[in-house]
Predict the 3D structure of the following.
Amino acid sequence: MRYFVTGTDTGVGKTFFCGLLARHLKNQGLDPAYVKPVQTGSPPDDDAAFVRDFAGLTPDRARTLFTAPEPVAPCFAFDPFPYAEALAGIAAVTAPNLIVEGVGGLLVPLDFSRSTWELARDARLSVLVVVPNRLGCLNHTLLTHHFIESQGLDFAGFAVNNHFAESQKSADRNLDALRYLVPGGVQWVFGGELEEQI
């Protein structure tokens, strides 16, 4: 299992989900590893440290490859982005259960010639999309899924974050709609009082 975890936007719970997934895999004795190719706003933002502490991973199993201090899209911090080095850093992780966390969504520019989704393609990772269960999520999720299919990426499913749900009714509506519109797409539901594991 080699996942590229992205979101329909920034701030949708990607890092928290990576922590949940890593902890789940570790509890099954599967020795997961986590890589964040680029972290902006560092410090204080440190997604690898959160995942490492949350999942109980060793430092060599949760790391960040490149950092920048300003909390901005990578294209504003790198010119050019060290793309080949990032791919090499991902490839160097030999763990069979790898979680690579992107920044924001798939089209966030790494620099002005490459975007985040290209890391998933070139590292041959299955794309898992974290979806905030809130008003507007259907459009954002379907656009993201359409892009994944248009680029021929391997789609691993949706991880729906109920932390954002306004009510049980709205959460259930969105989930039912996603299950209907993308059959088999919803793989995980997590967050808030509505948490479940699929």
Helices lie at 14-27, 47-55, 83-91, 117-122, 137-150, 168-181. Residues 57 and 179 are 33 Å apart (CA to CA). The first helix runs from residue 14 to 27. Residues 161-193 form one domain.
